[in-house]
Each structure stands twice: as structure tokens, then as C-alpha cells.
Amino acid sequence: MSETTEPGSYFVSNYPPFDRWNTDSVSAVRAAFAAPPAHVPLGLYLHIPFCRKRCKFCYFRVYTDKAAGDVERYTQGLVKEAELAAASPAVAGRELKYVYFGGGTPSFLSVRQLERLVDGLNNSFGWDNAEEVTFECEPGTLSEPKVKALRKLGMTRISLGVENFDDDILQANGRAHLSAEIMRAWDWIAAAGFPNTNVDLIAGMVGETDESWDATVSKTLELAPDSVTIYQMELPLNTTLVHDWKESGVPAPVADWPTKRAWVDRAFRRFEDAGYAVSSGYTLVKDPSRVAFRYRDMLWEGSDLIALGVASFGHLSGLHYQNEPHWDAYLEAVEAGTLPIARGMTPAPRERLIREMILQLKRGWLDVSRLREKFGVDLLTEWTDIWRGLEKEGHLTVTDGVPRLTRQGLLQVDSLLHRFFEPSPPQEQTAAS
Ligand code: SF4
């Protein structure tokens, strides 16, 4: 991997890669919904695609120009889609283990819109027994009544998209909020008594310096959230920063990878000094005996995930799928009473193993016996050369049969995972060429 931050995606969120998902697999996904359920935990993801402003590094499906009527139509679409999914044989009667409101900006919705949405969802899915209900917030969209309403509606984990505390940096990266809004929102969140609070940061936004990064870490330590998630700035192709780079010929001024890793390393150390424990290449938690991240852990261990919303990604009975990625196509499908599935992928058993192995490696270690029991494969002998290579490079140690990333390996885990990727099957290569 180049040491400079080049245009392209770095973060590995799934396997096999999205370029192997296709429309041919939609019928297999529909058949999975119509078949009996898999015996795995069930989660629900809702994509709320509205934002006040598009961040310059954003690569998600978001809309910044929708009127109240559009938002109402969309949330009713989510309710309808929930009804359709919950009535399918693969989902009917199952209890949700976790729920995730992501985006976009879920906190863009007003209290009234949220109440109507949750009311509607409750007719299909109850989450009284869910272990975790996460809700992502953008600081500037919160108000005290909204934060109280979120608690009352059953959210257990609030994730605040802070990213940085420096107003110049927030503005240079197109964020909609400033630092004063973060502090105000945090007071309301802390007072509302959520079981789990998380702060999201990004190391290496445009304009970041050693001083600004250290100040951001200090301020986050003062807030003392239950967990902190730190991403390293990347430049996916469909971001404003990359478009501007291409148009002007001037590279986006984002720090190189060694600098970003050094910043995250420094942050990890400071949080560890304050009593936090590292729980993945991106996350630290204050009290691991009390605070977990069930969405992440269950998803990485192969749970089902029903995806609601435009362009949303789901996983059912071992199959991947994505919803219609465009507003009209998504809404027309759900309003016509059809699950809005646009593409899918049926991983082979070995690909399912690779998926779970690489996602779980992001935690920093692997439960080899659990994966052996589930897939009948011994990871250490199956990929001996890769483990040896990683050890030689100082990214990993294997002790008592447990592969464990070193700090150096953990801080660049996404760049290491491609070694486990397999070439596409020949018929797919032909079809794609
Ligand atoms: S708040 Fe998040 S989803 Fe919205 S534009 Fe910014 S990065 Fe994208």
C-alpha cells in the first residue's frame, strides 16, 4: 500500500467484495426470505439518508435537499418495508438481538417523525429484548427534548459523530456542526442516562496537525464516553475531496498513512492511560465488563441483518444483499409491496469463513477453535504462509494457537486483510470483462 493517502477505499466492511454482488443473485435472496430461518441472532439496520450538509469525505447515499414531505414518505416507506420483511418466513416470529439506526443522520428526524417511525416499526419488530439499540447523531441536529425522546423511545447506545473539535477543521471538511454544538449536545446526552455512549473521531481530516489532534483527544477524554471509535481518514472515489482533486489537479491535503497511524497510536495510548481498553482496530471501551458493541460483534460472527432503507446492506441466511440504491426505485418498490432488493451475493462456505475471519481479525485476535468448530477448518494450517508473513513483518504473533495482531498490525488491519481474499471464480471474471 502506498504511504500517501491516494483516492480509493481503504476500509474493508465485508467479503466477498461488492464488485462480486450482482442482480442475478436477487432471486436467491428472495428465496432466502421465503425459506425457514437460519439459527443465528437477528439484527435490524435502518438507513436514514438525510444530512444537513454533505461532508467533503462522505461516500454514503445521503440527501441534503429533501423536504418534510419527502422525509415523511421515506419513514413510512421504512415502516412498510419492515412489515414486508417481518412477514417473511425467514424473519417471522424471531426476536431482534440488536438494532442500529445509521445514516446519513438519524438525528436529522424530528421528535414527531421519530415517534411515528418507532411506532410504525413496533407493529412489525419489537426491540424490548434487544441487547442494544444504537442511534447515530450529528451534534447540530440535537436538542434537549430530542435527546430525552431518544432515551424514552428505547435507544440504549448513542453514537455522536464528533470527528474533531477544531472549528477550522470541521469547516474545511464540510461538517455541518461546530465544537460548541458538540459540547451542548454532550451535556444533554450525559444527563439522559443512556447505558452506552460513543464518540466517533476521524484521525487525519483536512487541516489536521499534531496539535489539533492532541487537543481533540484531550477534549474527548474530558467527555469520558463509554467508548470511542477512531477512523483513519480515507478518500473513496465518490467524495467531494476526490472530485475537487481531479478537477483542480491539486491533491487533497490529507496526512499520509504513517502519520495517521501515529496519531491513532498516540490516542490509543492516552485512552489506555485513562483506563480504556482497546476492543478493535478502531474502538476503545471504558469498561469492557459493562460495555460491549453487540452490533459489531454479532454482525462479524455471522448474524442475520435485515436492512431497511435506500441502498442499505443486509445479510440473511448466509447471503449478502443490498437494497435499491436510488430514491424513486426504493420507494416505488416498497410502496408496491415488494422487498426492494437490488443485488445480492451467495458466498461459498469457504468465503463465509474468510468473511468471518477477516472481520473478526479487526478485533485484534481470532478465536481459532470457535471458527474451527463452525467451519471445520483450522485457520492456522490453512493460511500458514500468510500468518508467517504477518509475523515476519511484525504485524502479528501466534501464542498458544491464538493469532494476535501487534499494535502496529492493528493500526493498519484493513490493509492486511486483502491477503486472505481469493481470486474471483473464472466464470465471474469472464462475465465482468
Ligand atoms: S454526516 Fe455522515 S452521512 Fe452525513 S454527509 Fe457527513 S459523513 Fe456523510
Report on this structure.
This protein has 433 residues and is an alpha/beta fold. It folds into two domains: 18-300, TIM Barrel (Alpha-Beta Barrel), CATH 3.20.20; 363-420, no CATH class. It contains 18 helices and 14 strands. It has helices spanning 26-34, 68-86, 111-122, 144-152, 167-172, 179-192, 210-223, 240-248, 257-273, 294-300, 327-335, 349-361, 368-375, 379-382, 384-392, 407-410, 413-416, 426-432, and strands spanning 42-48, 96-103, 132-137, 157-163, 196-203, 227-232, 277-278, 283-285, 304-308, 313-316, 319-323, 341-345, 396-399, 402-405. A nine-stranded mixed β-sheet has the order 7-8-6-5-4-3-2-1-9, sandwiched between helices. Strand 3 (132-137), helix 4 and strand 4 form a beta-alpha-beta unit. Helix 2 (68-86) packs parallel to helix 3 (111-122), helix 4 (144-152) packs parallel to helix 6 and helix 7 runs parallel beside helix 9 (257-273). The radius of gyration is 21 Å and the shape is globular. Bound molecules: iron/sulfur cluster (SF4).
